[in-house]
Amino acid sequence: MITAQAFSTIRAIPRSAWNDCFPGALEDWDFYVAVENAAIDDFKWRYLAVYDDETLVAVAAAFITYYRLDTTVSGAGKRFTERLERLWPGVLRLQLYAIGSPIAERCDAGIASSVPEALRPLLIKHLLEAARQDAQAFGIGLVAVKDVPTNDPHWADSCRVAGFQSMPSLPSGLLAVPYGSVDAYLGSLCKATRKDLRRKLRAPGPRVEWRRNIDDVLPAVMRLYQDTLCRADLQFERLPASYFTGILERLEGRAVCALYWVDERLVAFNLVLLDQHRLIDKFFGHDSEFSRDYHLYFRSWLTNVDYCIQHNIPVYECGQEGYASKLRLGCEFRGNSMFFRHRNRLVNGLLKLVKMYIRPDRSDPAMAAAISET
Questions:
Q1: What is 173-333's CATH number?
Q2: Fewer CB within a 10 Å sphere, N or C end of the chain?
Q3: What's an example of a GO molecular-function annotation for this chain (predicted)?
Q4: How far is CA 188 from CA 178, 183, 308, in A?
Q5: Which residues does 24 contact at the CB level (< 8 Å), separation at least 6?
Q6: Extended strands (E) in 183-295
């Protein structure tokens, strides 16, 4: 008999059982424990588990928050929605129950290795139903699935049957790194970009230090984080200092932070997850006063490419922002979709209309190009 249950902590699910559902994932059980311990404001964590009798067969992370409908909007569209929010406070803010995670790269259903692939659609159906029931218990009408791979037919079919609407979400950027040197990578880019990057590299650059512990520089790291967050067009969560220290401590050799120094001043940091298969860029924070003179974003990019080359890591996963630069830098993009449904028919119909205007590709031409590529 198949049953489902929702938990408030991932510790309710055995580490080995969760990781068996996500073999090889960098964002594994320990990652979610570190996120829980960080106590990120305005988020309540949920974990969905599906059982066949007593055996765990599927899991998914979920969360509850208040969501602004224009979170993925940028540029002129963002300026319009901010004016609307000032005129009508709270009009774009709804309580949300979402399968997925605000701090993970993508959403997926974790299926136990012993379960045949043919049963995956059925288990996704049970996860959706478990999410709906859990949301109802909290009095939440809006249920969503965040950042599902666009090419996953099981999620798309299950969400459609369950009455969910769909829209494009932010695509994920990745760079294949088959190169023997940074110079070989630069040679793969268009002439104008290659020339520009080589010019930038001729100027003196900051000193780079790779760390697995940043406790002694944590105030400076958080200053850079806040400075970067204030300039961001797209933002969802606000990370406390305990997130950065917790990830480095809990994931041990699978997390590292690159520190960028000009003399004795910390001017940038980059938290990454890594294993022998990929390097995932989790957050890049930098000082706006130094960024222009030292080309910190591009230096960080080339530093990560060089790290992948030196350690034979074949893929650099570089997140969901900065699409104009990433198109120039040779990235490919993986499409993501968002599915949502409000149990109130009137609100659900209104959201169907609103989504036509708050799609992320409406306001950012580079993002639209990245989405079209997928």
A1: 3.40.630.30
A2: N
A3: acyltransferase activity
A4: 11, 9, 16
A5: 275, 277
A6: 207-211, 255-262, 265-274, 278-286
Per residue of the chain (374 residues), give pLDDT as tens: 899 999 999 999 999 999 999 999 999 999 999 999 999 998 999 999 999 998 999 999 999 998 776 666 666 666 666 665 665 555 566 889 999 998 887 888 899 988 998 999 999 999 999 999 999 999 999 999 999 999 899 999 999 999 999 988 889 999 999 999 999 999 999 999 999 999 988 888 899 999 999 999 999 999 999 999 887 765 667 899 999 999 999 998 899 999 999 999 999 999 999 999 999 999 999 998 898 889 999 999 999 999 999 999 999 999 888 888 999 999 999 989 999 999 988 888 887 877 676 666 666 666 666 666 66
Which backbone phi and psi does 281 adopt, to 5 degrees?
A: -80, 110
Q: What is the pTM of this model?
A: 0.90
Q: Left (φ > 0), alpha (ψ -120 to 50) or beta: where does 81 sit?
A: alpha
* Lookup: tokens for 127: 């996860």
The neighbouring-strand residues paired with 315 are: 176, 278
Domain boundaries, the chain: 2-171+336-373, 173-333
Domain spanning 2-171+336-373 has what CATH number?
3.40.630.30
Which residues make beta-bridge pairs with 148?
A: 337
